[in-house]
């Protein structure tokens, strides 16, 4: 059925599939996949990279076209390859880095041109734990921290991955994994995959020509990757991981044995379970096992020392600890890859000594997905605790996000360096930073709308207008075709908005079952049921909090509504990045703001302006007018910090609560979610007050009358009056 028609007040129900081609002339993400998942392909000068360009063209021809595509809107991802008898992992050819034919590699200048045209920037971070230099500019100005000097940060031009076929031809991934990729329909690598896969699969091959003179041989890399939302970072970290484990398993005698090789940390259960699914599809038939962490799952085997039979003698303690870490059974969960939220794994690692954790000595790869939030104060201790528990000297760490502030980068690199010093690791590895496009910016392929709704009731009216467009419009910015997500600041607000909108979808279109709410107060089972129903297209409007703002991939979602303004620029980038995934065009991101939000929206307005500039929108068509940008006040650092931690004050804690969740004095109900304006509510309250007052007066008058009667009559029942 045409969702938009059903929701339009003036039109009748048309019985067509929700994900069908009947999406009007507006091209929306739910209409199908994009023929090219890449976001940037600036022209390369004619003479450069000809050979490779041909390959890309070829791939483009092979790619599925939008027109013929009839997909179930943001339906479950391409089904995993059918389990044909898998080719044994041992049969896969093994291409060592030395055997790669130099003919297959590009010249450095070609690499440079291609990387530039895809807006990829690769930088080697300083080799040692070089502290940032304090530079005093003048006597009057404060000392500034100069983070970059030419010698410390080296821009390099590694081999880009031009086609997935190169994964096998150049980097020697197994045939089985190559088949899995093909069967899932991956054809053209996205920018982050172009840049990161060569670096992680064969750093020497990838960096060979680029670094020979300037930085010498590089044995391995720890990677900080910053790439737009929906640009395929999951696949970028999973391919090297599964490949590495397969290679290791080839050398093991007992093929049934699994020992924990890699830990992937994600901030929410929803994202962790999505990663598990992706990893399972990729490793089908490879023998690599993936498990999602859950409460009660044993990661560490118990030993005599743990059950209380160990000695307390301090002279023996160190030896015992060493013995213990050797003896601990790492494969209790019997898995190669564990995907987890930070809290779950850290509590599974806690030892009987408070504040101490069991080590994970077999883990060789640690992946932090949404690394900036994992290293933010909320999760920092838990994430660093797990990182610290990974004691293997060969550990490689990769960090991924669409946003990464310089403080997070500094924390990550200092953790890597101090760990190397602590464990006395000496090898030729380097930290590499990969940035795709403009750092910390929103994807350029969606339409942004920043809408002033003045008041809370104004926001509700505006949302209803999006849900029930009254005028037929071909302009994607005037309507929002479900499925879409609505973000609120708090759980009570999400619940209240859900209650308010519950009956907005006509019964003929499925009624209240089409709208749902998801937040962290729900049980795990309820959360996962809502996720499944949304993915299956049963739910059209999903109201949620920031719990779904990061990483979650609902392929063809058409839009995002920020019912409440996000708490930071990064939160905006991630929320709106739920649409426009894998290069799909037509996604819409609507942000409502009221007078309470005015001090905070400049940041968002700037992000929108930068995104439109990136997309090449001429100034005349920009939705962010210069006068508005100039007029909006600039929040102070302190205000930004407060906003990030607690959200907009007027909405803190719930519907309209003040500080610490208490209703602000004299402002009770000011921010409640309701269609009625404050004036209407005042009239209603006055009416109610008048009725109550008149009842009270009647009661008082009756009481006075009764008081004049003899006392005995109080207890006598006079029967029902005729
Ligand atoms: N090379 C590719 N070609 C086509 N689709 C791809 C490709 N790589 C990934 N995708 C698809 O792109 C979508 C987004 O990928 P993914 O979830 O990994 O994005 P992400 O970069 O991690 O985003 P976020 O920052 O929001 O977490 C997924 O549906 C994935 O299957």
From TrEMBL:
Keywords: ATP-binding, Helicase, Hydrolase, Nucleotide-binding, Nucleus, RNA-binding. It is an enzyme of class 3 (hydrolase). One of its GO terms (biological process) is maturation of SSU-rRNA. Residues 86-99 have a biased composition (Polar residues). Residues 43-63, 678-687 have a biased composition (Basic and acidic residues). Residues 1-105, 123-147, 302-324, 654-722 are annotated as: Disordered. Residues 314-323, 705-722 have a biased composition (Acidic residues). Residues 133-147 have a biased composition (Basic residues). Belongs to the DEAD box helicase family. DDX52/ROK1 subfamily. The Q motif is unique to and characteristic of the DEAD box family of RNA helicases and controls ATP binding and hydrolysis. Interacts with the U3 snoRNA and is associated with the 90S and 40S pre-ribosomes. This is ATP-dependent RNA helicase.
């Amino acid at each position: 059925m045409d969702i938009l028609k059903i929701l339009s007040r003036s039109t009748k129900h048309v019985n067509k599939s929700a994900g069908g081609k009947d999406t009007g002339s507006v091209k929306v993400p739910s209409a199908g996949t994009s023929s090219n998942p890449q976001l940037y392909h600036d022209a390369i000068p004619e003479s450069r990279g000809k050979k490779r360009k041909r390959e890309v063209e070829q791939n483009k021809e092979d790619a599925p076209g939008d027109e013929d595509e009839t997909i179930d809107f943001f339906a479950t991802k391409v089904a995993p390859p059918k389990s044909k008898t898998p080719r044994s992992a041992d049969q896969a050819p093994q291409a060592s880095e030395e055997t790669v034919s130099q003919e297959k590699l590009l010249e450095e200048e070609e690499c440079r041109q291609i990387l530039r045209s895809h807006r990829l920037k690769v930088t080697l971070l300083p080799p040692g734990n070089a502290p940032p230099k304090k530079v005093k500019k003048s006597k009057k100005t404060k000392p500034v921290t100069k983070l970059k000097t030419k010698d410390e940060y080296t821009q390099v031009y590694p081999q880009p991955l031009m086609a997935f076929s190169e994964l096998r031809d150049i980097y020697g991934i197994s045939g089985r994994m190559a088949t899995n990729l093909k069967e899932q329909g991956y054809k053209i690598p996205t920018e982050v995959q172009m840049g990161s896969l060569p670096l992680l699969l064969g750093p020497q091959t990838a960096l060979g020509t680029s670094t020979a003179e300037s930085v010498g041989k590089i044995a391995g890399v720890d990677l900080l990757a910053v790439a737009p939302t929906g640009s395929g970072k999951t696949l970028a970290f999973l391919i090297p991981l599964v490949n590495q484990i397969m290679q290791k398993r080839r050398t093991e005698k007992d093929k049934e044995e699994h020992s924990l090789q890699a830990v992937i940390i994600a901030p929410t259960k929803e994202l962790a379970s999505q990663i598990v699914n992706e990893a399972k599809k990729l490793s089908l038939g490879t023998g690599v096992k993936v498990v999602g962490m859950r409460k009660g799952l044993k990661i560490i085997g118990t030993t005599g020392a743990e059950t209380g039979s160990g000695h307390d003698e301090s002279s023996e303690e160190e030896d015992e600890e060493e013995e213990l870490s050797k003896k601990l059974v790492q494969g209790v969960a019997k898995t190669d890859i564990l995907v987890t939220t930070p809290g779950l794994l850290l509590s599974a690692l806690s030892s009987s000594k408070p504040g101490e954790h069991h080590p994970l000595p077999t883990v060789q790869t640690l992946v932090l997905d949404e690394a900036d939030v994992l290293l933010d104060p909320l999760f920092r201790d838990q994430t660093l605790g797990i990182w610290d528990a990974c004691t293997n000297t060969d550990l490689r760490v990769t960090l991924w996000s669409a946003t990464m502030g310089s403080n997070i980068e500094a924390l990550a690199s200092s953790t890597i360096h101090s760990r190397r010093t602590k464990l006395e690791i000496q090898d030729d590895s380097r930290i590499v930073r990969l940035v795709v496009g403009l750092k910390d910016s929103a994807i350029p392929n969606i339409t942004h709308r920043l809408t002033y709704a003045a008041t809370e009731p104004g926001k509700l009216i505006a949302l209803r207008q999006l849900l029930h467009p009254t005028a037929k419009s071909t302009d994607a910015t005037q309507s929002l075709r479900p499925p879409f997500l609505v973000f609120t600041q708090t759980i009570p607000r999400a619940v209240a908005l859900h209650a308010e909108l519950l009956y907005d979808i006509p019964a003929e279109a499925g009624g209240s079952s089409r709208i749902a709410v998801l937040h962290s107060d729900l049980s795990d089972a309820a959360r996962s049921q809502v996720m499944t129903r949304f993915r299956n297209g049963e739910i059209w409007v999903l109201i949620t909090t920031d719990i779904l703002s990061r990483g979650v991939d609902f392929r063809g979602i058409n839009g995002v509504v920020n019912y409440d303004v996000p708490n930071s620029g990064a939160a905006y980038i991630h929320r709106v990045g739920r649409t426009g995934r894998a290069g799909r065009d037509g996604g819409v991101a609507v942000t409502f703001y009221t007078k309470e939000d005015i001090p905070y929206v400049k940041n968002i307005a700037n992000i929108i302006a930068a995104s439109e500039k990136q997309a090449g929108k001429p100034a005349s068509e920009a939705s962010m007018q210069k006068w508005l940008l100039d007029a909006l006040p600039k929040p102070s650092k302190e205000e930004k910090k407060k906003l990030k931690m607690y959200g907009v004050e007027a909405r803190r804690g719930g519907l309209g609560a003040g500080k610490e969740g208490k209703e602000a004095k004299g402002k009770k109900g000011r921010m409640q979610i309701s269609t009625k304006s404050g004036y209407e509510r005042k009239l209603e309250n006055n009416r109610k007050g008048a009725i109550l007052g008149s009842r009270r007066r009647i009661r008082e008058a009756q009481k006075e009358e009764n008081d004049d009667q003899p006392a005995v009559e109080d207890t006598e029942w006079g029967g029902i009056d005729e």
